[in-house]
Amino acid sequence: MSPIATTTTDQIMETVSSLPAKLSSALHMAADTLTTPTGTGTASHATSTLRLPHFSAPLPAHKPYVLESDEGETITLVGSGSVMRYLATAKETGDQYAIIHTRARPDEPVPAHFHARTHDTFLCLRGTMKVWENDQCRILGPGDFASVPPKCVHAFQPLSPENEFIGIISPGSWTKMFNFIGEPYTTSPTFPWNDSRPFPVPLFIEAIKAGEDVIPQREYSYPSATEMSESENVVPQDSTPYFLKADCGPKYFIASQSCSPLTLARNTNNAFALSIIAGIGSQESFPSFPKARTEKEAGPFPAGKQIKLASHSLFRVIEGRVKFTVGATEEVVTAGESVMVPAGTGFNYLITSAYARIYAFSGKGGGLEEVFVRLGREGVKGEVVGENEDAAVSEENVEGVLKALGGEVV
C-alpha cells in the first residue's frame, strides 16, 4: 500500500500548514478529495482562492483579490531605471485612489511640478530618497512618509543603489500620465538598472497638452535637504503638506493590536487614508503571551464578526502571517502580499504568527483606521503593542463608528 493511502487528512493538514500559500492551497484541495465519498465526484467542501493566476494578470475591477509579492501589472518609465507596479488602480477603487509600488536605481531628481487636483504621497520602504515640498526638503529612510496635497510644489529623487517606495495617489485616474511616458515591463520583477534612454520629453509635453494634471515649475529653487527628525511626529488636523518620521507618530491600541496613522481622511480632503496596523498572535496560538487576547477578542472586529466598509480597502502585509476572510473565502497572506477588499464586502482578519504588521489603505471617508482612532486608547511615546491588556471593542461601539462611515457589522 502506498504511503499516501495510510496518511490521514489531519496529518496532511498539519504537514502543509507552514508551506507557501499557493502550494498549501493546492495540497489542501488534494486532501479534501480524501474525504470525498466514492463515486460522488465532489469534495466534501468547496475550495476557492482570491490569488491572481499569473505574474502580470490584470487586476479585477470591484472584486476581492490577493496580489502576491512583486506581481501584477508593471510598467517602466522610459529612461528612469525604475519599475512601477500597480497594487490598485482607479478601475478597482472607483477612482478613489491608486497605489503604486516602485523599485528604482539612484537617479536625477524628477523635475519640480505641482498638481492642481491630485494628492500625492511617498512612503519609503528601502534605501533613501529626497522629497521636496515647497520650501522644505527631507531625506526619507525606511518608514518615513511625505504627504503632498494639491498645489504643493514637489519633486523627488531616489538616492541609494536600490530603492523601494509606495505612493497612494488620488484620484487614481491620474496614473493615465504613465500611459504617455511609460511602457509595460515583464522582463523581471526588479528594475532596468542600465536603461540609458533619454527621458521622453516630447511625450511628456503631449501628456500635459492632453490635460494631464502636471504643472512644471521650471523656476523652482530646490532647497537643501535635511535629515528627518523625531520632532516630525504629528499628523496635522488639515490637508497641509507634512513629513512624518518612521515610528514617531500617534498610535491607537485595541485588544492586542495598534494602529499608527500615516495620513487620515482629514489630511486628504476625505479622499483616502493610510496607516500601519500591528498586532500579536492570539491567546489560543500563543498561550505564553500574557497580554494576548482570544481570537474573537483581538483587534477591531467585535466577537470575531466581519465588517463592511463604504470605501475600498487594500491591506499589504509588512511582516508576519495574517489570515484574511473575505466573504466566505479564507486566504493566509504573508510579507509583501496584498489583499483588496471592495467597498461593501464583509471581511475580517486574524494574526496567525507571533507578530505581524500591515499597511492599511482606505478610500473616501476613511476605513478601518477610524475604528482605532475613535475607539482605541492613544498610546504614549515609544509604546509598542503586546505590553498592555487593552480592552476588546463592543459591537455597539464599532457599529456606531461604521454607520458614521457608511458601513456596518455583519
Question: Could you characterize what this model shows?
Answer:
It is a single chain. By secondary structure, this protein is of the alpha+beta class. The chain has two domains: 72-227, Jelly Rolls; 250-409, Sandwich (Jelly Rolls). It is built from seven helices and 27 strands. It has helices at residues 9-16, 21-33, 90-93, 177-181, 201-209, 368-375, 395-405; strands at 65-67, 74-77, 82-88, 98-104, 113-114, 120-126, 129-133, 136-140, 145-148, 154-158, 163-169, 182-184, 215-216, 226-227, 242-244, 252-254, 257-263, 273-280, 307-308, 313-319, 321-326, 329-334, 338-341, 347-351, 355-362, 377-378, 408-409. It has an eight-stranded antiparallel beta sheet with strand order 1-23-20-25-18-17-16-26, with helices on one face. The chain has an eight-stranded antiparallel beta sheet with strand order 12-2-3-4-11-6-9-15. A four-stranded mixed beta sheet has the order 10-7-8-14, with no helix packed on it. A hairpin with a 4-residue loop joins strand 2 (74-77) and strand 3 (82-88). The longest helix has 13 residues, at 21-33. It is globular.
Radius of gyration: 22 Å
Cα shape: globular
Q: Separation of termini?
A: 48 Å
Number of E strands: 27
Strand line-up across the major sheet: 1-23-20-25-18-17-16-26
Structural class: alpha+beta
